[in-house]
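Comment thread on ticket #2218

A.B. wrote:
> Attaching the input chain for the structure job we discussed in standup.
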Amino acid sequence: MSSQGRAFDGGYAEFTCVPATNVQALETKLDWEIIGAVPEMLQTAYGSLFKALKLQKGDRLMVRGGTTSVGLAAAAIAKNHGCYVAASTRRPNPDVEKTMHTSGVEQVLIDDGNIAAQVKDAKFDKVLELVGTVGFVDALYGMNRGSLVFGTLEHPKGLVAMRQGSRHCLHDRHGRQQLVLPRFRPNGLNS
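C.D. wrote:
> Ran it. Output below, let me know if you need it in another format.
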Protein backbone atom coordinates (compact mmCIF):
# COMPACT_ATOMS: atom_id res chain seq x y z
CA MET A 1 0.00 0.00 0.00
CA SER A 2 2.93 2.28 0.78
CA SER A 3 0.93 5.42 1.70
CA GLN A 4 -1.61 4.96 -1.09
CA GLY A 5 -4.77 6.74 0.00
CA ARG A 6 -2.75 8.71 2.55
CA ALA A 7 0.18 10.43 0.83
CA PHE A 8 -1.60 10.33 -2.54
CA ASP A 9 -5.15 9.55 -3.70
CA GLY A 10 -6.36 6.16 -4.85
CA GLY A 11 -6.34 3.81 -1.89
CA TYR A 12 -9.93 2.71 -2.43
CA ALA A 13 -10.44 3.63 -6.08
CA GLU A 14 -11.56 1.28 -8.83
CA PHE A 15 -8.78 2.69 -11.01
CA THR A 16 -5.71 4.52 -9.81
CA CYS A 17 -2.30 5.70 -10.97
CA VAL A 18 0.44 4.61 -8.58
CA PRO A 19 4.21 5.02 -8.53
CA ALA A 20 5.97 2.20 -10.38
CA THR A 21 7.80 1.30 -7.15
CA ASN A 22 4.44 0.23 -5.69
CA VAL A 23 3.67 -2.25 -8.47
CA GLN A 24 4.54 -5.94 -8.30
CA ALA A 25 3.59 -8.86 -10.50
CA LEU A 26 1.32 -11.32 -8.71
CA GLU A 27 0.37 -14.79 -9.88
CA THR A 28 -2.53 -16.24 -7.92
CA LYS A 29 -5.74 -18.20 -8.27
CA LEU A 30 -7.49 -16.01 -5.71
CA ASP A 31 -10.38 -13.80 -6.80
CA TRP A 32 -9.79 -10.05 -7.20
CA GLU A 33 -12.17 -9.36 -4.29
CA ILE A 34 -9.90 -11.39 -1.96
CA ILE A 35 -6.64 -9.99 -3.32
CA GLY A 36 -8.00 -6.45 -2.94
CA ALA A 37 -8.68 -6.97 0.76
CA VAL A 38 -5.40 -8.63 1.71
CA PRO A 39 -3.06 -5.58 1.79
CA GLU A 40 -5.35 -3.50 4.03
CA MET A 41 -6.02 -6.42 6.37
CA LEU A 42 -2.34 -7.33 6.73
CA GLN A 43 -1.21 -3.71 7.05
CA THR A 44 -3.78 -3.10 9.81
CA ALA A 45 -2.80 -6.26 11.69
CA TYR A 46 0.94 -5.71 11.32
CA GLY A 47 0.83 -2.01 12.20
CA SER A 48 -1.40 -2.63 15.22
CA LEU A 49 0.93 -5.33 16.55
CA PHE A 50 4.33 -3.81 15.92
CA LYS A 51 3.84 -0.05 15.65
CA ALA A 52 1.11 0.48 18.26
CA LEU A 53 1.55 -2.44 20.66
CA LYS A 54 5.31 -2.87 20.12
CA LEU A 55 4.86 -6.64 20.22
CA GLN A 56 7.91 -8.61 21.37
CA LYS A 57 8.75 -12.29 21.17
CA GLY A 58 7.36 -14.01 24.27
CA ASP A 59 4.53 -11.49 24.86
CA ARG A 60 1.11 -12.77 25.87
CA LEU A 61 -1.34 -11.30 23.34
CA MET A 62 -5.13 -11.25 23.49
CA VAL A 63 -7.06 -10.39 20.33
CA ARG A 64 -10.64 -9.27 21.03
CA GLY A 65 -12.51 -9.91 17.81
CA GLY A 66 -10.41 -12.94 16.96
CA THR A 67 -12.67 -14.19 14.15
CA THR A 68 -12.38 -11.00 12.07
CA SER A 69 -10.01 -11.03 9.10
CA VAL A 70 -7.71 -8.60 10.95
CA GLY A 71 -7.96 -10.70 14.12
CA LEU A 72 -7.06 -13.93 12.35
CA ALA A 73 -4.18 -12.23 10.52
CA ALA A 74 -2.90 -10.70 13.79
CA ALA A 75 -3.03 -14.11 15.49
CA ALA A 76 -1.01 -15.74 12.71
CA ILE A 77 1.56 -12.92 12.65
CA ALA A 78 1.94 -12.88 16.45
CA LYS A 79 2.22 -16.67 16.72
CA ASN A 80 4.86 -16.67 13.99
CA HIS A 81 6.70 -13.97 15.98
CA GLY A 82 6.90 -16.26 19.03
CA CYS A 83 4.02 -14.93 21.12
CA TYR A 84 1.34 -16.72 23.12
CA VAL A 85 -1.98 -15.85 21.44
CA ALA A 86 -5.47 -15.92 22.92
CA ALA A 87 -8.45 -14.57 21.02
CA SER A 88 -12.13 -14.00 21.63
CA THR A 89 -15.25 -14.97 19.77
CA ARG A 90 -18.91 -14.51 20.60
CA ARG A 91 -19.78 -17.80 18.91
CA PRO A 92 -19.00 -20.98 20.85
CA ASN A 93 -18.73 -23.22 17.80
CA PRO A 94 -16.20 -26.03 17.10
CA ASP A 95 -15.72 -24.93 13.47
CA VAL A 96 -15.01 -21.35 14.53
CA GLU A 97 -12.57 -22.54 17.19
CA LYS A 98 -10.82 -24.80 14.64
CA THR A 99 -10.35 -21.83 12.30
CA MET A 100 -8.94 -19.78 15.17
CA HIS A 101 -6.52 -22.56 16.22
CA THR A 102 -5.41 -23.00 12.58
CA SER A 103 -4.57 -19.28 12.51
CA GLY A 104 -2.32 -19.53 15.58
CA VAL A 105 -4.72 -18.98 18.49
CA GLU A 106 -3.74 -21.14 21.47
CA GLN A 107 -6.59 -20.12 23.79
CA VAL A 108 -10.12 -19.38 22.59
CA LEU A 109 -12.11 -17.11 24.92
CA ILE A 110 -15.87 -16.84 24.62
CA ASP A 111 -16.70 -13.14 24.80
CA ASP A 112 -19.54 -12.84 27.28
CA GLY A 113 -18.56 -9.28 28.23
CA ASN A 114 -16.44 -10.46 31.14
CA ILE A 115 -13.26 -11.95 29.69
CA ALA A 116 -11.25 -10.53 32.59
CA ALA A 117 -12.93 -13.07 34.89
CA GLN A 118 -12.03 -15.92 32.52
CA VAL A 119 -8.33 -15.09 32.42
CA LYS A 120 -8.02 -14.41 36.19
CA ASP A 121 -4.29 -14.46 36.98
CA ALA A 122 -3.15 -15.44 33.45
CA LYS A 123 -3.38 -11.86 32.19
CA PHE A 124 -1.97 -10.42 28.99
CA ASP A 125 0.91 -8.11 28.11
CA LYS A 126 -0.76 -6.74 24.98
CA VAL A 127 -4.40 -6.58 23.88
CA LEU A 128 -5.54 -5.85 20.33
CA GLU A 129 -9.12 -4.57 20.70
CA LEU A 130 -11.09 -5.05 17.46
CA VAL A 131 -14.59 -5.17 18.96
CA GLY A 132 -14.85 -1.52 19.98
CA THR A 133 -15.49 0.45 23.12
CA VAL A 134 -18.05 -2.02 24.44
CA GLY A 135 -15.21 -4.33 25.49
CA PHE A 136 -12.47 -1.79 26.07
CA VAL A 137 -12.76 -1.57 29.87
CA ASP A 138 -13.04 -5.36 30.16
CA ALA A 139 -9.83 -5.60 28.10
CA LEU A 140 -8.07 -3.27 30.55
CA TYR A 141 -8.84 -5.61 33.43
CA GLY A 142 -7.49 -8.60 31.52
CA MET A 143 -4.02 -7.03 31.38
CA ASN A 144 -0.86 -7.16 33.43
CA ARG A 145 0.38 -3.90 34.97
CA GLY A 146 2.46 -1.89 32.49
CA SER A 147 0.67 -3.51 29.54
CA LEU A 148 -0.83 -1.97 26.41
CA VAL A 149 -4.25 -2.17 24.73
CA PHE A 150 -4.67 -0.88 21.19
CA GLY A 151 -8.12 -0.33 19.70
CA THR A 152 -8.41 0.18 15.95
CA LEU A 153 -12.11 0.87 15.42
CA GLU A 154 -13.12 3.92 17.43
CA HIS A 155 -10.63 6.52 16.22
CA PRO A 156 -8.96 6.86 12.81
CA LYS A 157 -5.53 6.90 14.43
CA GLY A 158 -6.35 4.27 17.04
CA LEU A 159 -6.31 4.55 20.79
CA VAL A 160 -3.72 3.12 23.15
CA ALA A 161 -4.43 2.35 26.77
CA MET A 162 -1.76 1.53 29.31
CA ARG A 163 -2.17 0.04 32.72
CA GLN A 164 0.18 1.91 35.07
CA GLY A 165 0.07 0.50 38.58
CA SER A 166 -3.55 0.65 39.70
CA ARG A 167 -4.48 3.34 37.14
CA HIS A 168 -5.58 2.88 33.55
CA CYS A 169 -4.52 5.69 31.23
CA LEU A 170 -5.60 6.38 27.67
CA HIS A 171 -2.94 7.79 25.35
CA ASP A 172 -3.00 8.90 21.75
CA ARG A 173 -0.67 7.04 19.41
CA HIS A 174 2.09 9.61 20.09
CA GLY A 175 2.16 8.69 23.78
CA ARG A 176 0.40 11.81 25.07
CA GLN A 177 -1.85 10.98 28.01
CA GLN A 178 -5.47 11.85 27.21
CA LEU A 179 -7.46 10.49 30.14
CA VAL A 180 -6.99 8.66 33.42
CA LEU A 181 -9.79 6.20 34.06
CA PRO A 182 -11.08 5.90 37.62
CA ARG A 183 -10.11 2.80 39.52
CA PHE A 184 -13.03 0.45 39.86
CA ARG A 185 -13.65 -3.27 39.96
CA PRO A 186 -15.92 -4.66 37.27
CA ASN A 187 -18.09 -7.54 38.47
CA GLY A 188 -16.20 -7.73 41.76
CA LEU A 189 -12.74 -8.35 40.24
CA ASN A 190 -9.62 -6.96 41.86
CA SER A 191 -7.85 -4.51 39.55
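A.B. wrote:
> Thanks. Noting for the ticket: The two ends are 41 Å apart (CA to CA).
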